[in-house]
């Protein structure tokens, strides 16, 4: 099952990548990359279970937190940019 | 004092004088007293050295080692002492003249002027007493740098451009061909020490030696060998005492002296004489004739004298290139005689400028009436430079002819004869115009030139005495020449005196 | 084929490296340059991690039931490199912000005329 | 105790005190603290030099882990001498750093600047004393990061400092990344990061990987060394950084890059007698000559004294590379003589320039008018340094050039002989621009005679004296350089 | 202070949950780091009921349970739409009134809207949210106000406790 | 089969089903990302992967966890992910809208620019 889910996630990546490449707007690309980012968290967790390395969850957690911080940073950047101009 | 002490004194005395002059800058009288005292002291020191010189015990002093094998050391030897004697002897006279000239011209920056002058003498002494090429090179560079403020003295646009040219020629030639030749010598011979008989024989082939000699001849830019003579006329923007320094006391003299030393102690006279110097003979002879011809075309007195220097000192190079003891002896004598003759001429030209504000041949018609004594001195100097008896200038020309004929260089003999005619051709008009010319004959279109002083027909005594003294010197040297020859004879292997 | 799969991380490294360098060189926007720099640095992280991998071994975190671990040293090294990379990025972004504040742009072509060495020192230029 | 641990203290002292200095609120106290720490570091470095002078190699195992597993601080004569250069430079600069920041950096920013300064010193010293190549990278980044910050602090007087710092950051980070990629390759084939080990294991390692690895390292170091055509960051960095910082960088930053080339000569280029290595030495003379020429030519056309000096530094780095490329003990020794002498000469000139900037608020050529009148000492020091750069005898610069030319002569490398001699002429041209600007140009308005601020006198004067002293009494420097080189190559001194 | 203690406790349990090691050394250092973080948060002015609404925990849990169900339902809708099984997309956009008074609960409402697939809060201007919906019905059901009402209850709850 | 065995089996089944659903949801969401017509509709699809995908997989894994700590961590991951998702989604949508990107709407009626219209 883990393998199947991992494959599903990889297919998800591929599809998101297609969207990231084809665009057409920059927002589509960011959206796709965001999806890839959040799915990476899931992939790490699944791979950890698949290889019996449950400590991978910690990595997934760190990744999730970084993702959150990154999101907040982007959010602030977008807000700040508007307010400046 | 031992010879070693005397050598150090000769270098340090002007150095200390420069420092004192800088400190005494606020009081012109004190400053100039220091200059004169130092000049007298230096002349005395060098005289002591000459009088006490003994080839057997001539000591060397090691000063510093810059690289292993590239050491700074001093050594007294006859040719150097002759050069030192000329420079030291003329410094005092030149200083006296400077005082008269600079005060009359109300020149600015006189402290810098006297200090740099003293520094130049210190460097000249170091060149004279250099014990090896390394030391000579170091002092040679120092001389270039300390004379730069002198050349740029007026700091007008013209002065800046001229000084730039002066520096460019001298540094460029010394930093590339000269340093290159020194390093080549070092690489080939393993030493840079001035050694009797030279150090290069057998170390390099004759072809390489010819190239090396040319590198030296052009590397020593101070020797003003054509076509690298351009700095000398350019440096004419300097005050006249500086021109005297450049032409007669230290700078060009240092150049040809360097060539003499290199010929005698690095190559060896015989080595050059066996054909290594032949290319240089042609270049030097061409330089003599070409510079003389150019001198004839110059209206500006100092420019005329400058080209005269190029021609006259190319004869020293010629002597070096001929490469026989007799020729070298002629070169040494030419170094001395030209110094006295040319300084007389410069003093004269400067005095004319101070007294009448005239700088050009076309302007000086008839001024001789006001300056009889000066013009008499000028005539003596001119005849000596041309090489006519009974003046000192005769000897080197005569010896050079002998040397040329000893090597069967008949074309060269012709050249030398022509050169004497040309010399008269460019010097005589000055005297003739000044003394016999009619004042009205001067060019009505001559533009008023910028003056730096306010002199009017009056010639300060201090500007008159020195040329008279040096003119007398030319007479005395006619008699004293054999003594000089005897002094240097052992060093250059000159056997039977003529 | 197995070679291709086995070398996959290295291909990724090369692609990332070239991409990053290309962005650093070709992009005129300072922030984009920094992003390119980040990608370039990430390629090195991947390279180091790939170096440390031992076939059939587990990541170098001690855990009961495993004896074969990948080489931990590259990972440890790259931890330092990541910190350095983040610090560089932070300084770079801070500089970009300051540049935007003083020049009003972070586009290289707009900055170029404002930063010519011939210009008189600041202030006079801003008028 | 201190003597034994000097090897590590020399890095740790500035590294750990930097954050503390940043916390000091009073800029004057922070500046004094930075000076004291730099001076203490200089004492430690001197201790190391004394210990290594007889050929001893100090090996300090960090955390008592033996190499090659643990990190080794390995201090031979080269490392000790470099540490001395770096810490002395820092001490001299710290003497006038606070004064030169007046009006340039706001008092609130100064403590942080001092901290970055110490951090930079720590990074540079770290590069020098560590025996672990990855550690070199880490220290390189520490020094680089603080350098970016330091350069950016020049924005108080010229906003172009920001773009200068940014450009340097991009290039520096790219260079460092290249360096670390190179390390990866070497590590893969040798399994070690210890540079001594690396040298030994290199002989049996696959040649192709070594080639790739050392190429990356070479490019990385080349960026740091401002090697043509990767030199572009340097003039701006030196010209727009706070003047005192420019002085420090001129004395240290690129010198450390040259140090890295020398240190890595075992695996970055061929050492004599060893076959099969990658021969980067052959690249150095052409690159060096190009730098010599390009740096000098551009220096002639620049309108700002600091820029001029920066381009001149490129030329001088070229000379060091040329020397290094000539190879062998003599080549390394010649490069080292150039490295130390140039640090002293350029340091003196930059320090004097900082003093001029402090009085005049500008280092543009036209701002130098009347310098010989109202700042005669400063002018004299500038001329002295300039003469040394030309290579006038009795200055350290002459010795530097002479060793290179003599070596090239002995190897009959006429290209180098001609190139080095000819570029002296271009040097004359740009140095004479300074002389004419300071001595002959007429100032717009006469200024009262106010020479160097006292804070500059000791550092600028000392460096000037050394410029002269090492030109006359060059033996200590030559001996040191040849001993270091002999130790590097492994022949008896 | 209570706020800080509660926050500290929360951090401490988070630490322990993540660490999984209970040696005395780690337990003590964890206290130190928790204290450090709280000090930093205090200095940043981030310790307040607005940021850590402990009083709402119970109410939030109830709300989240309801929200989870909504999310599942919404997901099914969107998945059917993507797979072409349900009604085709009929994108709509419109303003929705948010009746909460506090920023906290307005954020909660806006985020809840976005979190349920099929609706996104595009703009939040005062008490009006601009919503994009995949289906007209999604927008309509938001405008009906079930979610708004539940959030308002939480809001009143929160305000009551604060006051 | 003892009770714990049955419990374990149930755990296995529930967990596998949950992560299966999560995987499928992620897949479908990504499919939507490709298939749906404009940015705003695609954002809904990304919401699917962010919620259903994450909930399914992480809760499923939590059910399958060998120990309670791992499960707790997974739930923390889930909470963090669920906090991040709407924030980023909203930020993107707002940035898109403000920069002038308009959704293509079913009814040919432009979205009201002012609230309450
Ligand atoms: Na990075
Ligand atoms: Na949504």
Automatic annotation (TrEMBL), chain B:
Give the transmembrane ranges. Answer: 6-24, 36-67, 79-101, 113-131, 137-154, 166-187, 207-232, 244-267, 279-297, 309-329, 367-389, 409-437, 458-485
Broad class of where this protein is predominantly found: membrane
Organism lineage: Bacteria, Pseudomonadati, Pseudomonadota, Alphaproteobacteria, Rhodospirillales
Q: What is this protein called?
A: Cation:proton antiporter
PANTHER family xrefs: NA(+)/H(+) ANTIPORTER SUBUNIT (PTHR43373), NA(+)_H(+) ANTIPORTER SUBUNIT A (PTHR43373:SF1)
**InterPro entries from the xrefs?**
CPA3_Na-H_Antiporter_A, ND/Mrp_TM
The UniProt record lists the keyword Membrane: yes
Per the record, GO CC terms? endomembrane system; membrane
Q: Does the keyword Transmembrane helix apply?
A: yes
Domain NADH:quinone oxidoreductase/Mrp antiporter transmembrane: from-to ranges: 130-423
Q: Where in the cell is it found?
A: Endomembrane system; Membrane
Keywords, ordered alphabetically: Membrane, Transmembrane, Transmembrane helix
Recorded topology in the membrane:
Multi-pass membrane protein
Automatic annotation (TrEMBL), chain C:
Any Pfam family matching the protein? Oxidored_q2
Location in the cell: Cell membrane
Primary subcellular site in the record, as a coarse category: membrane
- Print the keywords alphabetically: Cell membrane, Membrane, Transmembrane, Transmembrane helix
Where do transmembrane segments lie in this chain? 6-25, 34-54, 74-97
Q: Does the keyword Lipoprotein apply?
A: no
Membrane topology, as annotated: Multi-pass membrane protein
Cellular component, GO annotation: plasma membrane
Which family is annotated? Belongs to the CPA3 antiporters (TC 2.A.63) subunit C family.
Protein name, as recorded: Na+/H+ antiporter subunit C
From TrEMBL, chain D:
Origin: domain of life: Bacteria
Is this entry keyworded rRNA-binding? no
Gene Ontology, cellular component aspect: plasma membrane
Location of this chain's protein in the cell: Cell membrane; Membrane
Keywords carried by this UniProt record: Cell membrane, Membrane, Transmembrane, Transmembrane helix
Q: Which Pfam families match?
A: Proton_antipo_M (PF00361)
The primary location reported for this protein is: membrane
Single Gene Ontology BP annotation: ATP synthesis coupled electron transport
Does the UniProt entry include the keyword Membrane?
yes
What kind of membrane protein is this, topologically?
Multi-pass membrane protein
Q: Where is the NADH:quinone oxidoreductase/Mrp antiporter transmembrane domain?
A: 132-427
One Gene Ontology term of the molecular function aspect: NADH dehydrogenase (ubiquinone) activity
InterPro entries linked to this entry: CPA3_Na-H_Antiporter_D, NADH_UbQ_OxRdtase, ND/Mrp_TM
Give TM segment ranges: 6-24, 29-49, 77-101, 113-130, 136-156, 168-189, 209-230, 237-262, 282-301, 308-333, 377-400, 412-432, 452-473
* PANTHER family to which the protein is assigned, alphabetical: NA(+)_H(+) ANTIPORTER SUBUNIT D1, NADH DEHYDROGENASE
Family to which the UniProt record says this protein belongs: Belongs to the CPA3 antiporters (TC 2.A.63) subunit D family.
Q: What is this protein called?
A: Cation:proton antiporter
From TrEMBL, chain F:
Kindly provide the name given to this protein in its UniProt entry. Answer: Sodium:proton antiporter
* GO molecular function terms attached to this record: sodium:proton antiporter activity
- From which organism does this entry originate? Zavarzinia aquatilis
Q: Does the keyword Protein biosynthesis apply?
A: no
Does the keyword section mention Cell membrane?
A: no
> Domain of life here?
Bacteria
Q: Where are the transmembrane segments?
A: 12-34, 46-65
Which UniProt keywords are present, listed alphabetically?
A: Membrane, Transmembrane, Transmembrane helix
């Amino acid at each position: 099952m883990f393998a199947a889910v991992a494959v599903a996630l990889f297919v998800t990546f591929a599809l998101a990548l297609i969207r990231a490449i084809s665009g057409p707007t920059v927002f589509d690309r960011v959206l796709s990359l965001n999806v890839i980012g959040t799915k990476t968290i899931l992939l790490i967790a699944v791979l950890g279970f698949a290889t019996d390395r449950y400590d991978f969850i910690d990595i997934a957690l760190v990744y999730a937190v970084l993702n959150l911080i990154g999101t907040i940073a982007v959010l602030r950047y977008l807000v700040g940019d508007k307010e400046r101009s | 004092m031992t010879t070693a002490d005397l050598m150090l004194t000769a270098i340090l005395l002007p150095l200390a004088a420069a420092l004192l002059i800088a400190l005494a800058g606020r009081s012109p009288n004190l400053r100039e007293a220091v200059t004169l005292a130092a000049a007298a002291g230096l002349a005395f020191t060098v005289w002591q050295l000459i009088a006490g010189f003994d080839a057997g015990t001539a000591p060397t002093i090691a000063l510093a080692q810059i690289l292993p094998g590239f050491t700074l050391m001093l050594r007294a030897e006859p040719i150097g002492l002759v050069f030192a004697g000329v420079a030291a002897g003329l410094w005092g006279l030149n200083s006296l003249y400077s005082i008269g000239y600079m005060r009359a011209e109300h020149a600015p920056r006189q402290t810098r002027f006297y200090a740099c002058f003293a520094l130049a003498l210190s460097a000249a002494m170091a060149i004279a007493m250099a014990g090896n090429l390394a030391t000579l090179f170091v002092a040679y560079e120092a001389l270039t740098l300390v004379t730069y403020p002198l050349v740029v003295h007026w700091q007008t646009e013209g002065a800046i451009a001229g000084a730039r040219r002066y520096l460019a020629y001298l540094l460029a030639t010394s930093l590339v061909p000269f340093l290159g030749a020194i390093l080549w010598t070092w690489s080939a011979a393993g030493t840079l020490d001035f050694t009797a008989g030279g150090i290069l024989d057998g170390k390099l082939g004759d072809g390489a030696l010819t190239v090396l000699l040319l590198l030296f001849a052009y590397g020593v830019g101070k020797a003003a060998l054509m076509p690298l003579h351009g700095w000398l006329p350019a440096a004419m923007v300097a005050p006249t005492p500086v021109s005297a320094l450049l032409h007669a006391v230290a700078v060009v003299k240092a150049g040809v002296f360097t060539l003499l030393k290199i010929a005698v102690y690095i190559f060896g006279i015989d080595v050059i004489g066996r054909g290594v110097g032949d290319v240089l003979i042609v270049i030097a002879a061409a330089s003599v004739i070409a510079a003389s011809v150019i001198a004839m075309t110059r209206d500006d007195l100092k420019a005329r004298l400058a080209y005269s220097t190029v021609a006259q000192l190319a004869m020293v190079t010629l002597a070096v290139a001929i490469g026989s003891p007799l020729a070298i002896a002629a070169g040494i004598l030419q170094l001395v005689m030209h110094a006295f003759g040319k300084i007389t001429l410069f003093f004269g030209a400067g005095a004319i400028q101070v007294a009448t504000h005239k700088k050009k041949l076309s302007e000086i018609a008839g001024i001789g009436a006001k300056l009889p004594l000066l013009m008499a001195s000028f005539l003596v100097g001119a005849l000596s430079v041309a090489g006519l008896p009974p003046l000192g200038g005769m000897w080197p020309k005569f010896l050079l002819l002998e040397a040329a004929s000893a090597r069967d260089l008949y074309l060269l003999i012709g050249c030398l004869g022509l050169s004497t005619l040309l010399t008269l051709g460019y010097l005589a008009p000055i005297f003739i115009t000044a003394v016999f010319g009619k004042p009205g004959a001067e060019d009505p279109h001559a533009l008023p030139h910028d003056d730096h002083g306010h002199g009017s027909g009056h010639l300060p005594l201090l500007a008159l005495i020195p040329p008279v003294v040096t003119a007398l010197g030319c007479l005395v040297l006619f008699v004293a020449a054999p003594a000089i020859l005897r002094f240097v004879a052992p060093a250059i292997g000159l056997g039977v005196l003529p | 084929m197995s070679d291709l799969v086995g070398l996959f991380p290295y291909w990724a490294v090369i692609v990332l490296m070239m991409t990053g360098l290309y962005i650093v060189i070709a992009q005129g926007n300072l922030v984009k340059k920094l992003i390119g720099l980040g990608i370039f640095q990430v390629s090195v992280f991947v390279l180091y991690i790939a170096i440390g991998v031992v076939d059939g071994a587990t990541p170098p975190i001690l855990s009961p039931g495993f004896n074969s671990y990948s080489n931990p040293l590259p990972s440890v090294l790259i931890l330092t490199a990541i910190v350095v990379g983040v610090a560089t990025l932070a300084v770079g972004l801070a500089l970009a912000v300051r540049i935007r504040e003083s020049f009003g742009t972070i586009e290289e072509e707009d900055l170029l005329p404002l930063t010519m060495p011939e210009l008189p020192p600041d202030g006079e230029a801003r008028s | 105790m201190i003597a034994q641990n000097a090897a590590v203290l020399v890095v740790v002292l500035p590294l750990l005190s930097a954050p503390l200095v940043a916390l000091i609120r009073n800029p004057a106290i922070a500046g004094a603290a930075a000076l004291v720490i730099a001076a203490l570091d200089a004492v430690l470095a001197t201790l190391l030099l004394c210990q290594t002078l007889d050929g001893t190699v100090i090996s300090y195992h960090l955390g008592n882990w033996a190499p090659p597993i643990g990190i080794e601080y390995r201090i031979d004569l080269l490392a000790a001498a470099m540490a001395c250069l770096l810490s002395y430079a820092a001490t001299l600069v710290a003497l006038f750093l606070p004064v030169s920041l007046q009006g340039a950096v706001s008092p609130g920013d100064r403590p942080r600047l001092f901290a970055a300064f110490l951090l930079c010193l720590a990074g540079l010293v770290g590069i020098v004393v560590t025996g672990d190549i990855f550690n070199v990278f880490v220290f390189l980044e520490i020094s680089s990061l603080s350098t970016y910050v330091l350069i950016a602090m020049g924005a108080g007087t010229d906003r172009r400092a920001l773009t200068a710092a940014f450009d340097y950051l991009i290039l520096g980070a790219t260079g460092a990344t290249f360096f670390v990629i190179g390390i990866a390759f070497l590590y893969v084939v040798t399994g070690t990061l210890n540079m001594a080990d690396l040298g030994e294991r290199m002989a049996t390692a696959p040649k192709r990987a070594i080639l790739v690895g050392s190429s990356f390292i070479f490019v990385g170091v080349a960026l740091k060394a401002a090697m043509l055509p990767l030199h572009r960051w340097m003039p701006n960095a030196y010209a727009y950084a706070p003047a005192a910082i420019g002085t420090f960088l001129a004395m240290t930053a690129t010198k450390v890059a040259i140090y890295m080339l020398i240190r890595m000569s075992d695996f970055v280029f061929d050492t004599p007698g060893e076959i099969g290595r990658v021969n980067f030495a052959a690249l150095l003379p052409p690159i060096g000559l190009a730098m010599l020429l390009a740096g000098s030519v551009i220096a002639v056309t620049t309108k700002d004294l600091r820029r001029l000096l920066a381009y001149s530094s490129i030329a001088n780095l070229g000379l060091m590379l040329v020397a290094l490329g000539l190879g062998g003990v003599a080549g390394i020794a010649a490069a080292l003589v150039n490295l130390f002498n140039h640090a002293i000469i350029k340091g003196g000139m930059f320090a004097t320039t900082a003093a001029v900037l402090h009085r005049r608020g500008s280092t543009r050529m036209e701002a130098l008018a009347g310098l010989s009148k109202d700042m005669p000492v400063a002018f004299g020091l500038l001329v002295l340094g300039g003469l040394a750069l030309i290579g006038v005898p009795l200055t350290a610069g002459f010795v530097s050039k002479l060793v290179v030319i003599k070596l090239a002569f002995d190897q009959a490398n006429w290209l180098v002989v001609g190139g080095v001699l000819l570029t002296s002429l271009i040097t004359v041209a740009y140095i004479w621009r300074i002389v004419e600007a300071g001595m002959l140009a007429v100032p717009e308005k006469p200024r009262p005679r106010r020479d160097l601020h006292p804070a500059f006198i000791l550092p600028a004067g000392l460096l000037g004296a050394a410029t002269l002293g090492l030109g006359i009494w060059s033996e200590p420097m030559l001996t040191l350089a040849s001993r270091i080189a002999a130790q590097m190559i492994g022949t008896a001194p | 202070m209570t706020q800080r203690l509660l926050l500290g406790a929360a951090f401490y349990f988070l630490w322990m949950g993540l660490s999984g090691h209970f040696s005395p050394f780690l337990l003590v250092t964890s206290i130190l780091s928790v204290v450090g973080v709280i000090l930093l948060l205090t200095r940043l002015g981030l310790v307040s009921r607005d940021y850590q609404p402990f009083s709402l925990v119970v109410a939030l849990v109830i709300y989240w349970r309801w929200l989870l169900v909504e999310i599942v339902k919404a997901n099914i809708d969107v998945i059917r739409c993507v797979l072409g099984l349900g009604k085709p997309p009929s994108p709509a956009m419109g303003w929705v009134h948010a009746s909460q008074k506090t920023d906290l609960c307005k954020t909660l409402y806006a985020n809840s809207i976005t979190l349920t697939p099929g609706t996104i809060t595009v703009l939040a201007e005062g008490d009006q949210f601009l919503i994009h919906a995949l289906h007209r019905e999604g927008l309509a059901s938001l405008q009906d106000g079930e979610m708004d009402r539940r959030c308002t209850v939480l809001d009143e709850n929160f305000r009551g406790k604060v006051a | 089969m003892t009770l714990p065995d049955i419990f374990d089996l149930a755990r296995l089944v529930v967990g596998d089903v949950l992560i299966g659903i999560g995987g499928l949801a992620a897949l479908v969401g990504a499919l939507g990302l490709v298939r749906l017509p404009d940015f705003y509709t695609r954002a809904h699809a990304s919401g699917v992967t962010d919620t259903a995908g994450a909930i399914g997989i992480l809760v499923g894994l939590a059910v399958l966890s060998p120990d309670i700590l791992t499960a707790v961590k997974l739930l923390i991951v889930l909470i963090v992910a669920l906090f991040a998702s709407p924030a980023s989604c909203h930020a993107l949508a707002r940035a898109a809208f403000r920069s002038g990107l308009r959704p293509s709407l079913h009814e040919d009626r432009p979205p009201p620019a002012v609230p309450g219209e």
